[in-house]
Design a protein that fits this description.
The complex is a heterodimer of chains A (about 120) and B (about 110).
Chain A: E1 4-7, E2 10-13, E3 19-25, E4 32-38, E5 45-51, E6 57-58, E7 67-73, E8 76-81, E9 90-97, E10 106-108, E11 112-116
Parallel strand pairs in A: 2-11
Antiparallel strand pairs in A: 1-3, 3-8, 4-5, 4-9, 5-6, 7-8, 9-10, 9-11
Chain B: E1 4-6, E2 11-14, E3 19-25, E4 32-38, E5 45-50, E6 55-57, E7 60-65, E8 70-75, E9 84-92, E10 96-99, E11 103-108
Parallel strand pairs in B: 2-11
Antiparallel strand pairs in B: 1-3, 3-8, 4-5, 4-9, 6-7, 7-8, 9-10, 9-11
Classes of the chains: A mainly beta (about 120), B mainly beta (about 110).
């Protein structure tokens, strides 16, 4: 089955540094990838939709200059948390679809636990 | 009002019990519905899609009531391995997935 690889799985960094998270679709081409954030005991919140070759679409309340998304190829999307602060500590998960159909299964990466000190 | 609401639980049940989870959604234009399972600090995994006619997959039965904007998941003969957080997920118009906060299930021997 389709696999989405997310790296790194865990990051601990100092406040003010930038962190890059990679999301790769290993055996399919994903024209669209999604980035979510999940705080403890809360639901996954969609941050942005990443489209290959074009600018990402951000959800309301998500700062596009802080959460930089690049989707340069059909198999790779990256999320960079710039100048991270402790309040950015969260579980970040990417997902991808093989095709744009509404009932098409969504494949998730294994997530990145970000801890900002 | 949250777009997708679930009872957070936890539901503590003995092995072999039958347990039911409910979910309501606010957007009447929502087009498709799913139940996902999430283990602690892991990615969500699709458990099953939910169809208007209701559908069953082994010990799991899902039902959808569009008029009431209500979705349910029934788990029969609970196993220890069923312990997890169950996420109700709604695909709204515009192909946007909205996740509920999840219901925690703990199955004990």
């Amino acid at each position: 089955g389709a696999v989405v690889s997310q790296h790194p799985s865990r990051v601990i960094c100092k406040s003010g540094t930038s962190v890059k998270i990679e999301c790769r679709s290993l055996d399919f081409q994903a024209t669209t990838m999604f980035w979510y954030r999940q705080f403890p005991k809360q639901s996954l919140m969609l941050m942005a939709t990443s489209n290959e070759g074009s600018k990402a679409t951000y959800e309301q309340g998500v700062e596009k200059d802080k959460f930089l998304i690049n989707h340069a190829s059909l198999t790779l999307s990256t999320l960079t948390v710039t100048s991270a602060h402790p309040e950015d500590s969260s579980f970040y998960i990417c997902s991808a679809r093989e095709s744009p159909g509404i009932n098409e299964k969504l494949f998730f990466g294994s997530g990145t636990q970000l801890s900002v000190l | 009002r949250k777009e997708v609401e679930q009872d957070p639980g936890p539901f503590n049940v003995p092995e072999g019990a039958t347990v039911a989870f409910n979910c309501t959604y606010s957007n009447s234009a929502s087009q498709s519905f799913f139940w996902y399972r999430q283990d602690c600090r892991k990615e969500p995994k699709l458990l099953m899609s939910v169809y208007s006619s209701g559908n069953e997959d082994g010990r799991f039965t899902a039902q959808l009531n569009r008029a009431s904007q209500y979705i349910s998941l029934l788990i029969r003969d609970s196993k220890l391995s069923d312990s997890a957080t169950y996420l109700c997920v709604v695909n709204e118009a515009g192909n946007k997935l909205v996740f509920g906060a999840g219901t925690i299930l703990r199955v004990k021997s």
